[in-house]
Amino acid sequence: MSARKIIIDTDPGQDDAVAILLALASPELEVLGITAVAGNVPLALTQKNARIICELAGRPDMAVYAGCDAPLKRPLVTAEHVHGKTGLDGPDLPDPVMALADGHGVDFIIETLRTHDAGTVTLCPLGPLSNIATAFQKAPDIVNRVQEIVLMGGAYFAVGNITPTAEFNIYVDPEAADIVFKSGVNITVVPLDVTHKVLVTSARNDAFRAIGTPVGIAVAQMTDFFERFDKEKYGSLGAPLHDPCVTAYLIRPDLFGGRHINVEIETSSPLTLGMTVADWWGVTDRAPNATFLGDVDADGFFALLTDRLARL
């Protein structure tokens, strides 16, 4: 079977970094390019961090593009309180030598979808959906060419992590999320309901460190850094690894479970802005538009992740 072609759209972020590393370590996936977006930290840092991670993985040949530096209609909200001032606080990684690819990330998404056969490229957004929505607005012809969108974002039973009802990625650019969820593309959502079940416990982090390579040690240092926030906030045994769940789903969908339901994005309420209103129980007549995941085999996830990181 040929590798699945993907574009990673990302705002690194330590967990984004691990998602990228997992993708680059997995022969089931062909990463066509990486597009950076403003989110966890501003664009100047997310595009830099994406290149740092590619070099850590031994892939300075990977094309990394800078995309949108702000949400469609709102001021940028960032998350340095979680990820640190650089977005990759924890390990001491060198500045990248590889250059940014020429051109805008949105244009790369458009041209890639136009160049490859329809239905052969999957979009993997790990941050706010600004780049994806902008591409859809700028080039409506590409929408029907997308194989699938597998995104990290939203929540239902786990409520919110940036407001009482909203998950960060969707909250930062709810208008972009609204465009994407109404696009008609086949969407799989990896929400907090799943990611809060894959916790980096001490034993799991020790397994990363025991790999003994620069990648394994850096990942352990990243999770050492950002777990302090989640442990304090949730009283959990470790930090949830949000974004690598997207990559893991592409490789091992059997590790996950969910439902095909209707998901709408709240864009106007001051109380619930950015909420993913998921009709989990089918109580409306709104047509299903997304597979909303709810379950994960956490041990299987960490076994996969540890095995693949050891290959880099």
Topology:
Layout: E1 4-10, H1 14-24, E2 29-36, H2 43-56, E3 64-66, H3 80-83, H4 105-115, E4 121-125, H5 130-138, E5 146-152, H6 168-172, H7 174-181, E6 187-190, H8 192-195, E7 199-200, H9 202-210, H10 214-234, E8 239-240, H11 244-251, E9 256-261, E10 263-265, E11 276-278, E12 290-296, H12 298-309
Summary of the model, kept short:
With 312 residues, this protein is α/β, with parallel strands linked by helices. The protein is built from 12 helices and 12 strands.
Low-confidence stretches: none
Radius of gyration: 18 Å
CATH-level-2 architecture: Alpha-Beta Complex
**β-strand amount:** 15-25%
The pLDDT mean sits at 96
Largest sheet, strands/sense/barrel: 8 strands, mixed
CATH fold field value: Inosine-uridine Nucleoside N-ribohydrolase, Chain A
Strand count: 12
Estimated structural class: alpha/beta
- How many alpha or pi helices? 12
What's the SSE pattern? EHEHEHHEHEHHEHEHHEHEEEEH
Spatial strand order of the main sheet:
3-2-1-4-5-6-12-9
Count of separate structural domains: 1
Q: CATH homologous superfamily?
A: Ribonucleoside hydrolase-like
Q: Which shape, going by the Cα principal axes? A: globular
- The helical percent reads 25-40%
- Distance between the terminal alpha carbons, to the nearest Å? 22 Å
